[in-house]
Specification:
Length: 327
């Protein structure tokens, strides 16, 4: 009957199954069929002897015969187009982020195209952003576990991406965090507050105004950390937020930066890796005529410097500190 379904093995319009194969097989190319067949594959001794063999060319009776890429009789396709030159070889930065980090997209904007970021997070902790929370997300066991989580992709440096968690107990605590990361197996280590300390020294800053999204107690700890570096704080402002810091808009941050500026302040530091800042740095630096330093900016800047790579993104004051080829 015309249009009736044929039973498996019955003759089709091109003859018997043996001549044209079953309907499902006839819809595949010979190469597709060969790959799906059950012929010899990795067990074939020719493959073990010659690494240039690749799968799969159909042989007699459906056997999969490995293809020798050096066979002069094979017709090579034209792959001279630049589209086949990639991908760009990637270099890695491991990132240890607090569980509530929401600005991964901003973080990537600070990196060149040949650098990838590999993130691990500290465990979730209920409660508001506070002194106690900063202590929880900077516990040694959490930092080392997150470090080990990113080592499988061979990062050149691992960064602890949290300002409050790294300044909360001063310079010795920050140094201890870096030591914990190294002891967990990282080749190099950075913390956000450690990157701030490097920028302060490299730019020879002695007076830095600060803004934070934290409460007053946590902001006081940042001021004390800067004091250990020999830096005074002419003016400070804080938002007093207990969460949702990534939702603060640019206008609010810009207003706080302008309000924190004083004639004797050499720079403004914007604390917290969860506070959006990328697009306002350059216009505010032009307006103020001084560096506007931010947490994510400094962290990636310090990582790139250890990789011998120049800084990307806004931040004219930092651009010349690390130069290409330095370690």
């Amino acid at each position: 009957m015309e249009g009736a379904r044929r039973a498996p093995g019955s003759a089709g319009p091109r003859g018997a199954e043996g001549a044209a194969g079953p309907w499902s097989a006839r819809r595949r190319s010979p190469y597709h069929s060969a790959i799906l067949s059950t012929g010899p594959r990795r067990s074939d001794p020719r493959v073990r002897r010659n690494p240039s063999f690749r799968w799969a060319r159909p042989g007699a009776e459906g056997e999969v015969v490995p293809v020798d890429l050096h066979d002069p009789h094979l017709r090579s396709p034209d792959l001279s187009d630049h589209a086949f030159d990639g991908p760009v070889v990637q270099r890695g930065i491991g990132i240890i982020a607090p569980f509530d980090l929401a600005l991964e997209r901003e973080l990537w904007r600070w990196t060149p195209l040949d650098v990838s970021l590999h993130l691990a997070r500290t465990p979730f902790e209920p409660g508001p952003v506070s002194l106690e929370m900063a202590e929880l997300v900077s516990e040694r066991r959490h930092v080392q576990a997150a470090t080990r989580d990113v080592l499988g992709v061979d990062p050149e440096v691992v960064a602890y991406l949290c300002t409050s968690g790294s300044f909360i107990h001063g310079l010795r605590h920050e140094e201890g965090l870096r030591r914990s990361i190294l002891e967990a197996g990282a080749p190099k280590a950075v913390t956000t507050s450690g990157a701030l300390a490097e920028a302060v020294r490299d730019l020879d800053l002695r007076r830095v105004s600060v803004i934070t999204p934290y409460d007053a107690d946590l902001t006081d700890r940042l001021v004390a950390f800067l004091g250990e570096l020999g830096v005074s704080v002419p003016r400070r402002h804080h938002l007093g937020l207990g969460g949702g810091i990534w939702r603060v808009n640019y206008r609010t941050v810009a207003e706080l930066i302008l309000a924190a500026d004083t004639p004797d302040a050499q720079a403004i530091f914007v604390s917290c890796t969860n506070l959006p800042t990328y697009d306002i740095i350059e216009p505010l630096e032009r307006r103020l005529g001084k560096p506007v330093l931010t947490a994510n900016q400094l962290t990636v800047w310090a990582c790139l410097g250890r990789m011998g790579l120049p800084m990307v993104g806004p931040g004219r004051g930092l651009a010349g500190v690390f130069t290409e080829g330095t370690a």
